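Exercise 7.
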Amino acid sequence: MKRFMRKMVSVTLGAALAASAVGLGAAAAEGDGAEKIVNVGVTDSLGGVNPLAIDQTEINKYAVGLEFLPLVELDPELNFEGKLADSVTTEDNLNFTVHINDEATWSDGTPVTAEDVEFTVLRLASPVINNATMMLYAFEGVGDDGFVEEGATGIDGIKVIDEKTIQFTSKAPMALTTFENTYGRYLHTLPKHVLGEYDESELVTLDWFNHPDVVSGPYILQDYDTDHYISYAANENYWNGAPKIDKLNIKIVEGSQIYAGLQSGEIDITHHTMTAIPQEDYESIESLDNVEVVYGLPITNQSAFIQTANIPDARVRQAMLYAIDRNQLVEQLLKGHGEVVDGFLSSASPFYDESIEPVSYDPEKAKELLDEAGWDGSQTLRFYVNSGDSTFVNGAQVLVAQWAAVGINVEVQTVDLATLMTIAGSTDYDIMAVQYTYAPVDPYPDVDWLLNGEGSWTGYISDEIKDALANTQQTSEIDEIRDLYSIVDKKVQEDVPMFSVYIISAQGAVSNRLTGAQPSAYGFFNDVQNWDIAE
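Solution. The predicted structure, written as tokens, is:
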């Protein structure tokens, strides 16, 4: 749905610095009046900065979230924390009441209101804007395609209660965590008093988003290049406290350049999911005296999706899983910083079922299954891989060799992530691998979307899985939910519409010069206004 990582791009670190005229160098030297600059090094490339037009990949989410706060966000301990909202409640898993923080104001001093939220949802549900990534079809008054009628001035399931309160009503029961994680974290409220004068068609390409002058978040976009950098200046009128860092830059580089950037001080901090540090650099970064290394929870899944229409026999798909030595990949590619699971959930999730034993490496079993399926080895499968993930580009070659050993011919095709996502949507592939972070506290929307038959990445559908997923929305009991996700993972293990190559416990690093900041998959920018440069 929207958690997968975007591509790394080819750009020399020094060239990227020289190319920018917005201060993307190392943090400014200390001294009276010195401008404080912090550089976040990432290996994802930006899709865009218009909250109405982007998909909800991580870098897009954070790029706009620094300006236009989400309603809530997860903290590093996987608890939901209010951002623009100070509470989200439900009594029936159908009606969700969101209260906007009374202190929340736009940078021009105008209060952030429930009408701003309603305005934003209406625009996201507009067929003219045509952005279906928010999955608004879940709410009353929105069509199954995620849109309302063109020119609609209201939505039955979105009601303004008062200046600071808005209610969302879903068509079917929805767990509170699903509402918070799927909508609360990804709805970036826009200022109605600024954008209300534009019609829907104008908003799609409105230049205002490239240099907005009214924001609710701690930083204001100054300049960006989708493949090289995003540069922000502090919002001195930020209602939650003016940032201590004057300029914040997100520098987009190749993974192989992270070590050099950390060593030189040109990169101050990395992110556990937006920054794919090559495993071969882990030890070198650990040896640096000027940074602290922090390993994250095992949450980033190197997922491989099989187009079941092209490989319809489950025995062939099972053989593909038996044929690969995933533990070897964890040890050799990840240097042991990861784990092997079957299905979607890692040990970081409260719903992880440790009794599910992953399919073991058994090439002879793979050959038996292929014989049963009548596989003659004449077909060459197309395996699409993110060119920006250098670690898995190498890992894919290992998989290809192990598949070849049992009689499955596979050809790797490396493409950038934007192209990979287009291919995934078209289903014009046999196997496709991408790093995907399924929210440990609520994997439901992603799993439901990925295993939803026609239109999904796999073309696979199972009534057993659909029933189990639906029932996760009916209860708040962790044990009950765990049992339901166990049904899903066991069925996926049996039918193999997808498999987890491995789960990454990603390395992160932060300069000793930076205070108040830590690498993390969640909550990374929650308190960015408190980041500072050590004296």
